[in-house]
Amino acid sequence: MFRISNTVVGALNVLSLLLGIAAVGSSAYIHVRGGSDCQKVLQVPLLVGGIFVVLVSALGIVGSLCRVNGALYAYLLVTFMVIVGLAFFTVFALFVTNRKVGQRVSGKGYGEYRVADFSHWLQRYVVNNKNWDEVKSCLMDAHVCQNLALNGGRNNDSLIFKHFSTTQAGCCKPPVYCGFIMKNATFWEVPKKGPAANNNTDCSTWNNSKEKLCYDCNSCKGGVLANIRNQWRRLTVFNACVLVLVTAIYALGCYAIKNNRSDSHCNHRKPPIP
């Protein structure tokens, strides 16, 4: 007779097996149909992650439902390594996102960010030349600077952005301290006397071309880092919940091994039927 722990571990691994197959299928779809540079970045992680989940889930199913202790031992070993990895990542994510950043722009409803506001690890990983070219390509593919909602009266000076994300605040307009005059959501006019902050490279980097805007500005990099920081904070909460779930599955797996041993021992002691 199946024990409850064996059934639960088996059912959860069937679900994870389906998720792994879906991830592999998504990777294959991107490979066959192609896509943007941003989508292609996900192809290899989806494939590797999907194959890993499929293999581990298969071990869990065979070990718990087919009562194969060798497979269950291998499953628990991998699960333990996953628990350690999740715990390490949770602590690491909290460490690299624990700085309070951003300056609120009075009356504008959004904040502006500097690269120096963030941890050195995030700066080195995201802002280096190679990775930033890929990030910039993703921003353009996602059209983050199109259809920006504005609020205001007839005077252009009173225009205020609505629902402005940290990325849009840094990449879709020049920094406020440049003193540029807004004509519409993505077109800004340099004052006749020049930028208010002549020594700031972002003021000279800004370009009204929709393909350039402020994608090469430090403020854009800061906005992207702020968005990553916010996403990582949410991911940390999600990761902690997954950690609790995986730990519970690990405990159930231990009980499943005990059940397998107990049933195997009973079968060996049972006298043959004459």
Automatic annotation (TrEMBL):
It comes from the Eukaryota. It holds the Pfam family Tetraspanin. The keyword Aminoacyl-tRNA synthetase does not apply. One of its GO terms (biological process) is auxin-activated signaling pathway. The chain crosses the membrane at residues 12-32, 44-65, 71-96, 237-258. It is found in: Membrane. Keywords: Membrane, Transmembrane, Transmembrane helix. GO terms for cellular component: plasma membrane; plasmodesma. It is a multi-pass membrane protein. InterPro entries: TET_plant, Tetraspanin/Peripherin. Belongs to the tetraspanin (TM4SF) family. This is Tetraspanin-11. It comes from Glycine max (Soybean).
